[in-house]
Design brief:
The structure is a single chain. It is built from twelve helices and ten strands. The protein is α+β, with helices and mostly antiparallel strands. The chain folds into two domains: about 80 residues; about 230 residues, Bira Bifunctional Protein, Domain 2 (BirA Bifunctional Protein, domain 2, 2-Layer Sandwich), CATH 3.30.930. Helix 5 crosses helix 11. The longest helix has about 40 residues. It is elongated, with a radius of gyration of 33 Å. Bound molecules: phenylalanine. Phenylalanine binds next to strand 9 and strand 10.
Length: about 350
């Protein structure tokens, strides 16, 4: 083995490397996984114990030599490259590929902007929630049948931890920590134990809104939502259909009149011209009481919408899964949107 090592040392002393290509070949020959140096080290175990130390030191010295050869040449070649680049200062700069915003972020920001302009602030909360903030405080006590409306991913029982099924949990936290008047929107990711298909996913994004003050009535809710639909969709015909949510009373579903001008309009509105956009209602007094808000003095409204649904509508995306696949051919189409 000594002979072999001496051969390599002699070779290294005479080595000549002309360019970056040769340097790479040299690097691979000596220090890649299957290179000479790992090979020599692996042969150490076959030689008698009393020689091991001396041979080991020699292999190490080869290794050091190889490293210093690589480092010295690297500097030289890199310098050459950068000198070439600086020769012609009038050369156009290299093209820098800019990223683009994700369509969900684009739509989320649009919605946030609309509400910021009319005096709402933004509140955020944890995605891992306790039972109180996600259900009980929202007028959904244990064993309440409406809990089944949102299939839940539970993390633990006692203490109860779960993945929030809506950002209404953030509204509870906000009411617990702030005095009315409250005007806040809560964007964020939510989770539901649902099958994944073109139309549904086990997680999605929501924006929920909450307004609590003296004398807030259903008229304020309707007017705020009308303003929102005009700003976001440019549509001004809406209707509120009676619905049910445990945390609002009365509750409603907001539909907008989308129109029936194109074939696509027929498809997305199922031939009716109307589209369901969000759920809303007047905050149930039980919810206010749970957050220690005086129901004699204050009332309020709340609403909640899924950002994916709106994004798919605005950009005519057929399959929700394309929003999460991160296929650049899809995402690049949004590089001009802000
Ligand atoms: N939290 C409801 C949901 O996720 C939406 C909603 C919010 C409905 C506020 C009414 C009022 O489905």
């Amino acid at each position: 083995m000594n002979k072999e090592i001496n051969k390599y040392l002699a070779e290294l002393n005479k080595i000549k490397i002309k360019d970056a290509n040769e340097l790479e070949k040299f690097r691979i020959k000596y220090i890649s996984k299957k290179g000479i140096i790992p090979l020599l080290f692996s042969q150490l175990k076959n030689i008698p114990n009393n020689e091991k130390k001396e041979v080991g030191l020699k292999i190490n010295s080869i290794k050091e030599k190889v490293k210093s050869i690589i480092n010295n040449h690297k500097e030289k070649f890199v310098k050459n490259i950068s000198n070439d680049n600086f020769e012609d200062l009038t050369k156009p700069a290299d093209f820098i590929k800019l990223g683009s915003k994700h369509p969900i972020s684009i739509v989320k920001n649009k919605i946030i902007d609309i509400f910021l302009k009319i005096g709402f602030d933004i509140s955020e909360g944890p995605e891992i929630e306790d039972d109180w903030h996600n259900f009980t405080a929202l007028n959904l006590p244990e064993h309440h049948p409406a809990r089944d409306m949102q299939d839940t991913f539970y993390i633990s029982k006692n203490p109860d931890w779960l993945l929030r099924t809506h950002t209404s949990s953030v509204q509870i936290r906000h009411m617990e920590n702030n005095e009315p008047p409250i005007r806040t929107i809560s964007p964020g990711r939510v989770y539901r134990n649902e099958d994944i298909s073109a139309r549904s996913h086990c997680f999605f994004h929501q924006i929920e809104g909450l307004y609590i003050d003296k004398n807030v009535s259903f008229v304020d809710l309707k007017q705020t939502l009308l303003h929102f639909t005009k700003e976001l969709f440019g549509k001004s015909k809406i209707r509120l259909r009676p619905s049910y949510f445990p945390f609002t009373e009365p509750s409603a579903e907001l539909d907008i009149y989308w129109g029936l001008e194109t074939e696509a309009d027929y498809r997305i509105t199922k031939g009716t011209g109307w589209l369901e956009i969000l759920g809303c209602g007047m905050v149930d007094p039980n919810v206010l009481k749970n957050c220690k808000i005086d129901t004699e003095k204050f009332s309020g409204f709340a609403f909640g919408l899924g950002i994916e649904r709106i994004t798919m509508l605005l950009y005519q995306i057929e399959d929700i899964r394309t929003l999460y696949e991160n296929d650049l051919r899809f995402l690049n189409q949004f590089s001009r949107s802000v």
